[in-house]
Amino acid sequence: MDDSKNKPPHGLSTRLVSYGDRAFSLYMRRSFASSMGYLPATLSKPVIGIANSVSGFNNCHRHFPELLEAVKRGVLQAGGLPIDFPTVSLGEAFLNPTSLMFRNLMAMDVEEMVRAQPMDAVVLMGGCDKTVPAQLMGAISANMPAIYLVGGPMMTGRHKGERLGACTDCRRFWASYRAGKVSAEEIEVVEGRLATTAGTCAVMGTASTMACITETLGMMLPGTAAIPAVHADRLRAAEATGIEAVRLSQSKITPDKIITRKSVENAIRCLMALGGSTNAVIHLTAVAGRAGIDIPLPWLNEISDTTPVLVNLKPTGSHYMEDFNAAGGMSAVLHELKPLLHLDCLTVTGQTLGERIDADTDPYVDRTVIRSMAEPVEPLGGLVSLFGTLAPQGAIFKRSAADKTLFETEGRAVVFSSLDDLAARIDDDSLDVNANDILVLQNAGPISGTGMPEAGYLPIPGKLARAGVKDMVRISDARMSGTAFGSIVLHVTPEAAAGGPLALVRNGDRIRLSIKDKKLDLLVDPAELAKRKAVWEKEAAKKVQPTRGYQQLYQQHVLQADKGCDFDFLRAGGK
Ligand code: FES
After folding, report:
1. What CATH homologous superfamily does 383-543 map to?
2. Atom 2 in ligand 1: residue holding the nearest Cα
3. Which residues, in sequence order, are bridge partners of residue 383?
4. Minimal CA–CA distance to 201: which of 172, 228, 178?
5. Using one digit for the tens of pLDDT, what is the confidence trace for 172-221?
6. pTM of the predicted model, to two decimals?
């Protein structure tokens, strides 16, 4: 007997099509839903939407069909009706110019589809770098009860007895190939051995960092961030997520109750303790911005200076995500960080973070992978923000992945005006560059037309690489892959294309970097800079802007890195 008419609107009876007659709208909807073979009683159950970002262009999500089945099993078992729907998917290696340019598009897709379709809660299925922040951003703005299921990391591959994990080892081998130490034949073999299973990159890159942050925020089931993609536990986590989603639809815990200033602070602490990706600063800023929470970069520094790096994972350490999971994963990290965390934050299960940590009474920890607070990998957090005349609104430096001998550097700028200029000249043997110089890349920021690519990991100039130089200070308004490493200053804000001081740097200028003082200065007379700015403004006025479609929307509304590169009209309060 269908008793749905006696209950408050839920499931399919919510968010009806506007025909001006609610009863007719529901009758129509149930009729069309019946065409999919559902029994009337099934159509009266709580509806759990499943935002599925599977795509043939996303290798990291190739196991999602199997995961989806497991989520559905869980939902059915708990008395709900699972209904999956596709969204934009962002496969890191398959998008031109960059996946970041489309993160906000995916966030809009998720937000609007979650808001428009009839569901009582949503399971967000993602994993590859930009998909996790995009889905979180959308779910927060829709403010629908939501629970996250990540795809989990890849397993490592093997090459000549050595473990390989995408994509820190991709870069290491490519650098050796550029330096002439690996042959063309061998690099081709390595290409087939770097990414060998389903799942996200195998190191603490952006995808894994965002997964761990999402667990810390309280948006996913405890202990599920790091389970490998191909492990049976990943399927069990999917089934359990489905069960939890039905409970969540009854408890009505919405993201605004979970994403708070305190939980965001916990997430930043986690980021620091993981030695996590620089990209996570941008993404977490955008996620928090959807909940009306700003992350001023000085706040980041305060937290970084009071949080040790605990996790010994590539690219900053030596282990891989499968090791992290076996070593205790996020449960072990949160136990260790407990004295520094806000324990009263609500999580998606209804427990507080403190209750979640205490529920795990004796977590196993492998101390070779996850260190104690007393014996950390590094005494200070992995990331630091810099300010100064070259970066008035800030820049990011990953100190845990950099050469400490370069922390206090003054050097001569060698400037590349664009990505094309970089590609054309970096390996030119006549390039005037030596190992003590500072490489500067301009016009690779959010509004540069490049989509802020992960080009901040400028290659060491060919002639220096062959001479054995492994690291140099490199500065840009670009990003860097979470799997990369080096003494690299990123996200310089304002970017060159917005007329920031970065646009005014010329070959031979002196630049000073001080990690101790958190400073980045261009040592050029202000009067000279004013002259250069006047010339820059004339040139900038001639630049052709996109005239239609998403490119135009992006160009007109994307914010700088210090606001997470979100669109101005999508942040809470529209700013
Ligand atoms: Fe998808 Fe690295 S390419 S996580």
Report:
1. IlvD/EDD C-terminal domain-like (3.50.30.80)
2. 201
3. 398
4. 228
5. 899 899 889 999 999 999 999 999 999 999 999 999 999 999 999 999 99
6. 0.96
